[in-house]
Amino acid sequence: MARVALVLIVVLCPVNGLRERDRGLNRWSQLATDPSPADVPQTFAWDGKLLAAVRARVLKGDADLKPAVAALVRSADSIMKLDTSKWTVMAKNYTPPSGDKHDYMSVAIYYWPCNSPHFPPPYPAGCNTSTGLPWVSHDGVVDTAAVEKFDSEPLGHMAAAVMSLVTAWYFSDNQTYASKAHDLAEQWFLAEATRMNPNLNFGQGHPGGASGGSGGIIDTVRLVHLIDALQILKLSKSFSEQTELQSWFSQYSEWLTDSHLGKGESRAKNNHGTWYDAQLQNYALYAGKPSVAKTVAMQAASHRIDTQILPDGEMPLEEQRTKAWSYTNYNLQAFFNLATSALHSSVDLFTYTSSDGRSIRKAVEFLLPYMLGEKKWPHKQIVPFKFSELFEVFRRAAIVYENATFESVIQKASNVSLAESVVNLIFPRSAVPDIEDAHHPMMTGRLDSSGLLGKVRGEAAVPSGYTRLPSGVILPDMFLMEHLS
C-alpha cells in the first residue's frame, strides 16, 4: 500500500520536476527571444520549447551552436546524395515464415552458428557441425554478417536519417531536407509496394530456434525519437500523411499490447522492459491514445524504477552483461525518454524516489566516480565505449535536475571535443545552470582515466558524435544508437 501511495504522490504532485524544467527553460529564454508558437513542435521525449528556443538562436547566428549545425547539415547533405531505395523491408533476400516480405525480419544479433570458427571448440552439446545448427548465443559479440542480411540495419539507418534530415531542416530552413525525410518515412511505413507491416512477429529469430522472439521488440527503439522527428515535421510543408502514420503507430501499439510477443517483452525486467514502456508510451501519444500512455507512465515507478534500480543506483541486470557499461547507459537512455514523455501524462518520474531511495537520479549519480576515474568499473566491457553516447544522458540529467555537477563531468571525462554533437541542439547546454569553468566544456576535450571510452572521432573527416557508415553517409550517434539486445 505504501508503494501505491508514493506513486500517487508523484502523479498528483509533479510540481518539483516541472518547476525544475521550467527554471531551465526560463534560464535559456533569458538568452533568446521567445520563440514563435508556430516554431514549437509538440514533441514527447524531446522538449519542444527548448527546441524552438535553440532554433531562434541558430537563426540569429549563435556562434556557440554553429559547429553542431554545420555537422548536422553535413549529415543531411550526405543522406541527400545516397541511394536510399533499399531502406525498406522489401530489400531483404529472405521471406519470413508468413510468406509476406512486408513483415519485418531480423536475426538475434548475438547468435552464431554453433560451429562458428570465431569460437574455438569444444562445440556446444547438440551442435550439428555440418549445418551449424542450432545457432547459439555469445553475449555482446555481434554477428554483423548475419545482421546485415535482414531488416534491422535498414530500419536503424532510415530512422536516423529521418531524424537527421528533419532536425537539419528545422535548424536551417532548407525545405529539401524535410521533403527527403517525408519520402523516407513514406517509403518505410506507408507506400503500398514497400511498407512494413506493423508487427515484429519475426524479430530476432535464429536458425535452429524460434522464428522470432519478444526480445526482437528492442529493434524498434530507434523509432522512439523518430516520433519526435515526425512531430517536428508537422511544422513543415512536407507533412501530408499525418493520419496515415498515426494509424500505422496505432496498429503497432496494439500489437505491442495484444500479441504474445509484446506481452512477453512487457514483462522483461531489464532494459528491454524499460524500452518497451518508452516505445509504447511514445507511440500511444503520437497515435492519440493518451489513456494507454498514462497507464504506462502510472505503472513505471513500481514496474521499472523499483525493480531495476537499487537504492545505491546500481542496475544489476545490466551489469551482468558482457558490455555492462554500454547496457547501463542504454537503460538510462530508456529511463530518460520514458520519464520525459510521462510528463505529458502529468506523471513525474524524474523526482520519484521509492521508500528505500531508488530513483533515476540515483542511477545517474552512481556512475559519477567511474566517469571521473575515481573508481575502476568492476564489470565486463568487451568493447570500447563511445563517450558521445553517455553525453546525452548526463546533459539531460544536468538540465532536468539543474545540476552543474552532471555538466562538469562531461568536461572532465570527455576525451574529444563534442561541440559538433547534435545533443547540443536537442538538449542545449545553456539550459544548464552556470558552472565554474567559463569555457565551453566541449571545446577542449580531456582524456579519461577509466579506460572505458573509445575515441569518438574514428577519422578526422567525421564530426565528433557522428558515425560514417560504409555507404559514406554520416549519421549522429544519438540518432543511430548502438544496436544492443
Features:
single chain, 485 residues, mainly alpha, two-stranded parallel sheet, 20 helices, 4% strand, globular
Tell me roughly what share of residues is in helical segments. 40-55%
Q: How many individual β-strands?
A: 8
> Termini distance?
35 Å
Sheet with the most strands?
2 strands, parallel
Q: Could you say which overall geometry the principal axes of the C-alpha atoms support? A: globular
Rg, nearest Å: 22 Å
Structural class: mainly alpha
Q: Provide mean pLDDT, rounded.
A: 88
Q: Spans with pLDDT under 50 lasting ≥5 residues? A: 1-32, 436-460
What does this structure look like?
The protein has 20 helices and 8 strands. β7 (466-468) and β8 form a beta hairpin. It has a two-stranded parallel ribbon with strand order 1-4. By secondary structure, it is mostly helical. The chain starts with a helix and ends in a 5-residue tail after the last helix. α1 packs across α12, α12 (290-308) runs antiparallel to α14 and α17 runs antiparallel to α18. The protein is 47% helix and 4% strand.
